[in-house]
Amino acid sequence: MERIESTQNKQVKEWKKLLTRKGRKKQNRYLVEGLHLVEEAMKSDAEIDVLVIREDKVTDYAYLYEEREIDAVEVTEEISSMLSDAVTEQGVLAVIKSQESPESLRGDKPVLMLDEVQDPGNLGTLIRTADAAGFEGVIIGKGSVDLFNPKALRSAQGSHFHLSIIHDDIETWISVFKDRGIPVYGTALDERAVSYRSIEPQEKFALIVGNEGNGVNPQILEQTDENLYIPIKGQAESLNVAIAASILMFSLYH
């Protein structure tokens, strides 16, 4: 196993760039951190470039690279800390190739679309819930935080390995789903919106949820088949986007 000791090592510098959106896009790679996410990556068909293991964890995590013959590199605690975004690091990371397959989104099951969702915790929770609800995939629209943000990945808890997830234009996909006869539902709080309870549970649909402060873009709402709201009985003005989407995903999918 190769060992790297210098923080100035060229490879280490390239890995560190993966903590930024610009770096991830340029390299077409991203980092997952922690044992659970690394194991989820290994269970999936993710393309793992290399495992990065802290020197005191090499023996503990030997099974990870031995059973799959994955390249692994031993690094010092200083390097491991430099690459970590977690409060408590576990001493193992994986460098993974970004893979998006728009053709895998057919609408055979429901699809969630995210319009300018900017909080990485919300984005990760939305993906995790879409996975739990049995959705086919998630489309992350322009203006949203990207899936490979470390905090988003932690919140998703590996669910991004179980779904088809792409970063793409929502309006383009509204047209695609309509051409396929698949209803598209937005979420809104205006007078034209209808209660989600008026919609019969179904097997195929697309659901759009929006920005934490402003909701779904009005231009997008004009293109949907129906816009839905969740009746609120208490005095809260609205629900967190991830909570609202969770209610709708489980309620609308038959």
Automatic annotation (TrEMBL):
Domain RNA 2-O ribose methyltransferase substrate binding residues, every copy: 31-102
Listed GO biological process terms: methylation; RNA processing
The keyword Calcium is assigned to this record: no
One Pfam family from the record: SpoU_methylase
Keywords: Methyltransferase, Transferase
Molecular function per GO: RNA binding; RNA methyltransferase activity
Thylakoid as UniProt keyword: no
GO cellular component terms attached to this protein's record: cytoplasm
Protein family per UniProt: Belongs to the class IV-like SAM-binding methyltransferase superfamily. RNA methyltransferase TrmH family.
Protein name per Swiss-Prot or TrEMBL: RNA methyltransferase, TrmH family
Organism listed in the record: Alkalibacterium subtropicum
